[in-house]
Amino acid sequence: MKQILTAICVLLLAVAGAQPRHLLKGLVKDSVTGLPVAGATLITKGNGVERTDLKGAFALSIADGDTLVISHINYTIQNVKVQKEEAYLIISLMPRDQQLEEVTINTGYQKLKPNEVNGSFSVITNERLNEQKGLSVLDRLNGVTPGMLFKAGKNTSNVNNPSVISIRGESTINGPLDPLIILDNFPYDGDIRNINPNDVESITVLKDAAATSIYGAKGGNGVIVITTKRGKFSTPTRVDISSNAIITERPDLYQYRQLSVVEYIGVEAYLFRNGYFNSTISNVSKLGITPAVEVFLKRRNGSITAADSAAQIDYLKKGDTREAYNSLYNTGSIILQNSVTVRGGSSTAAWMLGGNYDKTALYDRSKNNRVNVRFNSSFKLGKRMTLDAGANYTITTMFAGSPAYNSIKFYSNLALPYLRFRDEDGNPVVLAKDRQRSYTDTAGMGRLLDWNYYPATDNDFIRDKTTREDLIGSVGLSVNILDGLNLYASYQYQQQTGNSDKLYMAESYYARNQVNLFTRLGATAAADVFRVPRGGILLNNYSRLQSQNGRAQLAYDRRWKGAITALSALAGMELRSTLTSGGSYSIYGYREDPLSNTPVDYYTAYPTFITGFTSTIPFAPQKSGVVSNRFVSVYGNMAITLYNRFFINGSLRRDAANIFGLQTNDKWNPFWSSGIGWEISKERFFNSALFNYVKLRATLGTSGIVNPNKTADAIVYLSDDNISRFLRGSISTPNNPSLRWEKSRQLNIGIDFGYRQNRVTGSIDYYNKKGKDLYGPAPFNYTAWGGASTMEMNVANMEGNGIDASLNFKITDGRVNYNTGVIFNYTLAKTTKYFGPGAEQVSLFLGNGNTIIPIVGKPLYAIAAYKWGGLNKKGDPMGYLNDTLSTDYTAIRVEANNKGEEGNIRFIGPANPVIYGAWNHAIRWRGLEFSCNLVYKLGYYFRKEALNYQTLFSTGLGHPEYTNRWQQEGDETATNVPALVYTNYPQFTQRNTFYTASEIHVFRGDHVRLQYINLLYRRSFARTVIKDAAISFNVANLGILWRLNKYGLDPDYNYTNTIPPRPQFTIGLQAGF
Amino acid sequence: MKTIIIVILLLFCVAGCISCSKFLDKKSDTSIDIPNSLRVLQALLDNSDVFNISVTPAFGEASADDYFIEEKTLKTMEDRLSSVYSWRSLPYKFSNNWSVCYTSVYYSNLCLESVVRIEKNETNKDQWNYIKGAALFHRAYAFLNLAWTFAKAYDASSAATDLGIDLRVQSDFKISSKRSSVQETYDRIIADAKEALGYLPDTSNHVFRPSKAAASGLLARAYLSMRNYDSAFRYADQCLTIKNDLLDYNTIGDNDNPFLNAGYSGETVFYTTMSLWGRELFDKTYKRAMADTLLYARYDENDLRKKLFFNAGKPYSEFKGMYGVGVARYFSGIATDEIYLIRAECNARLARLQAALKDLNDLLKKRWNKNVPYKELAQNDAAAVLELILLERRKELLMRGLRWADIKRLNKEGAHIVPARFVNGALITLPANDPAYALPLPDDIINLTGMQQN
């Protein structure tokens, strides 16, 4: 509106003024390359719009003193005031991405110019982030951040690394591995999915110790600083809207590695003949038996004929669990993301108001809605004070969907490949997964509820709703006390609440089962007692997280001409407190409308229906303990610039926390760092026509982790004894006063350069990390405390070396711009010392390489394998014992433990990529932009899934290589897959582990993946309400382009029950007003 | 203006530093605490997962002769289990009977160390005494169970040199492990249990909590194992003076779990059940074990135990008569029936035959079908009375974690009990007083501590 008014005024003035006009000619060129810019738009107040021709030339009529506005999609807008009678003008436009180098580095404590920083960092701009789609802001860092590794698909069970992100490899063995996330200057405690990627202005990743030491104990794994969009002073109001639709096909269940139905039923028949199911069949709990075993059992009992049995088995063989699950799913997933922001600012106030609405409907029929509203503003109060205030509110509602593939299991263990959820006529079938039908059909003489489970419809009677609310409010006051001296005080409050309601309606299997289990039949039906009342069951879980952060910081910034060019110092103090609480309750006999529920007795243990074993009614209401973490930190940082080209900086920080049971002196933990930099390109002797910018820099810093178990007293966890109802205390770790802090030290040496006016820019960093006194599990004499056989102690030292490098090229002929960037990372961390038994025991690497295992001289994640001696004439896998072939797997393992690589195992290599990085491309022509990104991971190994008969028997999950198993003498020349044997076979368990851990299953993991391709068309408009608009099309998860293993395996998704994701298509619209 | 701001700043800093230490004193989790109050110590001693449920060794019972496994079943079992059955256990590691017993030893030691740091006064003396007594009791109870399993039977002539258990009496895990002698082991158990008597109340308000009756029962067990029948009698008698209830089996309905609700009341003086390691061989859930046929044949038709203790089957019957509750229900605690039998045995051995027979008859009457007249046992021959009592001890206390210690003890008395088992088509036996009666310690413990293996 304001713009329209302004425009009208200008127009009126132009008409009224009628100033003298003259012809202006000129040339528009690229300020970096010097090449002409074609198609640039030139606007004058009085006259219309002109464009430059192919040679960048223009000619127009202009009034004296008028301002010429030159714009081009690839360049920043420039205003030129035309002097009287000026006839020829050369205008240099600054390329847009040139601006990127002007971005400031936000460390969360201060904003710095890139050339003044001696540490190692990467800045990811909003544009770069938007080249990738998807809901999580962290996922968008993949492939665009030097030094950062995403272990996609890697077993995420590592509690120390839930984000699966690592920056520059590991610096601890047993401690937390996730980087610290800072949102608008404060640590973010909530769910990262609550941060909408569209709101993010930029992300700074801090990597070396000098950059992270200011974050103290939590910064040891690197820091990701997220800065959200905000308003700016003295800018016109602007409205941005954007909308994305993300579409993915449902997962291809046929990718799961499993046995064919016919083979699987064959295995079941084999097991049945050997008596495998006997204990299940006769179990007092009347455990459910699989459909095939049910047929075998009927045949054995003689209740059906051989012909009937064969017919029924044939029918089962036509079932397909994948089809059954697909019938519960939609064909694909759709995610819609919409956002609107309004920003503006006068000379005294800047503000931003925004909202998002995301709607997700996944293939499994789960639904997810997220609404976000946020606001932030800055006010200048007088000349010396600025007040900031902001608020951010997000509410997310999630409804769970259908059961995940293979989650419906027989007696909670066994997933079958031949399930049917409906019969030929489409009627729901009964699956006796928990109890035998022969029992449930007759139990209770008809006075119990239907005890059958109907997988096709059961989910219709379950409503699983989770609501999460996240509120962040902050205020900050900045006072300019003296020239250069600034006081900044800020406070942030965050509250996240979660509430989950799982309603099992009266018709659901869960509710019927609970009612039946707690039913006691009386002499007559009227005397029956229902301890769990008939009706629905509502299970509720609630949690609350509150965090408060306060910071007061005094900063001094001054610039001079002379020896000391600049001095900047800051000192501050932070207080931080987080409070977590929660609880759960259940409601029985629940009905929503009209509302009704029935109280139950959670206290008394009642005999349950089937076994008579007593049990209390589950899910008694309870409240969890209030966890309160408090931290105090003091920190200081100083940087001096000498002669405009030498940069020296240092920082110091001490942290303290309310770790329970710790002596006060142990609560304080110091960190320091220092750095130097030298901008050689500013030296007089540096006289290179090629390099316009060269800076050398080096930093050194420390960090450390204190273990909460380092207590003088044993810590007792209190709860309620579920039988005696006394208060019960338990000790999860014995007190170990001799534990010391983990210490780590990182050295970083780097060079930044710009070549030919920044047509090529890049930086190379070398780093060395040393960790001392690292915590690790050490075998321990459990006679002292029988709770565990290992205990955490200061057991290891490690050292890691690495290189992060990035190179960016800009190639343009004035019309077409091609930018390409290469990210190269090398990192390898090895254990240098390990105190305790097993320090050299390479046989500990006989696993999947998913966990850190400290072995001296070896990488932290690594794989070793048994030497393979083929199959023998009985189809048994053979290893080596004293260099001769053997099937004594127990002895083989003993030799592996004792002799290691000297004996019958082979150390293969690291299980994490040693070299990784990305190669991204962007081609821009007028408003059209095409970008794509290749991600590579090299120099590592992975263990392929293999057939394990024990796993197959107990979980039903097999491997298709079963088809090629040894079946008769002679097969051993053609196959490596061992013969099917029963559990009583000599060393059955060891035989399976030997085979799966043998070298024939280990392959190189090296591969190149096409991370995404992105097509964007952007256009600016001169005189319409819409200022600019863009449409984009993006495809992600495009799969592997090249791999070293010959079997077409994707090393990132080769774990049990994981399959590669389907391609993801996104259409996006953006407009600015 | 500037001065004011600077002053405010300085004040802020000073105030900040002072309040810091208070700010950091806040307890980080309301559900955690340190063992510096009687409330917390009591809570530690009330942890039923440490002291009551699934805690006592089952290795001995798995090695004893109250059950057997058919060869065809044995063939389907894993090596680690079948090797235990054939008395040639494969090396084994954490977790096991050893780790479970020493967990309760750690808790007891921690409580004993902590309670003396708390002042005893008029208001807290009952709880203080209970904690001291209970911790001593639990430690002695664990030590006795360990000695029964991992040490040779007590023999006064060799006890000073026979290898006992690690007598760990401090919570500090840096103290290294060493094996004491059998003599030292029993001395410690007796001393601790006697000291506990002085602190514990006569009875407790839950069978999970020890009492004077329980400590007396423990002393009776320990002295019986030492074949000190005089002292065993004294403490059995003291226990029965406090509690002498016996269940009338006529009131127990016959079903798959007849004593389901008897474990927390009835005859129980102190409740424990056997831990999983070793129990897998004979636990009814796994459908492997059958009752010893000769033993089963000794029950009279009118002896209610025949129906209530066994699921009669052809050709073999299965034991179902455990006093425990829930899944881990193989009761191994102290109950009055056992104490009656200890008192009877001691009386018999001390030639007080009438008193011995009275206890036996009192017990058996409660096991007899009330519709059939009970015929009092009478006998004048000391050896015959003892034989009667030992037979009834076996019939009454099977699968209670007592038989292994009994075989060892009775063989020292010259009973010549030789367990025999069919394995791989051959009959294997374990001769009386064989060193293998001291069962092997965990392999990893031997490797870490350098203690001598049995």
From TrEMBL, chain A:
The keyword Transport applies. SUPFAM superfamilies: Carboxypeptidase regulatory domain-like, Porins. InterPro entries: Beta-barrel_TonB_sf, CarboxyPept-like_regulatory, Plug_dom, Plug_dom_sf, TonB-dep_OMP_SusC/RagA, TonB-dep_OMP_SusC/RagA_CS, TonB-dep_rcpt-like. Keywords: Cell outer membrane, Membrane, Signal, Transmembrane, Transmembrane beta strand, Transport. It is a multi-pass membrane protein. It comes from the Bacteria. The keyword Membrane applies. Its main location: membrane. Residues 115-223 form the TonB-dependent receptor plug domain. Pfam families: CarbopepD_reg_2, Plug. Residues 1-18 form the signal peptide. It is found in: Cell outer membrane. Belongs to the TonB-dependent receptor family. This is SusC/RagA family TonB-linked outer membrane protein. It comes from Niabella pedocola.
From TrEMBL, chain B:
Residues 338-411 form the RagB/SusD domain. It is found in: Cell outer membrane. Residues 22-224 form the SusD-like N-terminal domain. It comes from the Bacteria. It holds the Pfam family SusD_RagB. Coiled coil: none annotated. The keyword Methyltransferase does not apply. InterPro entries: SusD-like_N (IPR033985), SusD_RagB_dom (IPR012944), TPR-like_helical_dom_sf (IPR011990). Its main location: membrane. Keywords: Cell outer membrane, Membrane, Signal. The keyword Mitochondrion does not apply. Belongs to the SusD family. This is RagB/SusD family nutrient uptake outer membrane protein. It comes from Niabella pedocola.
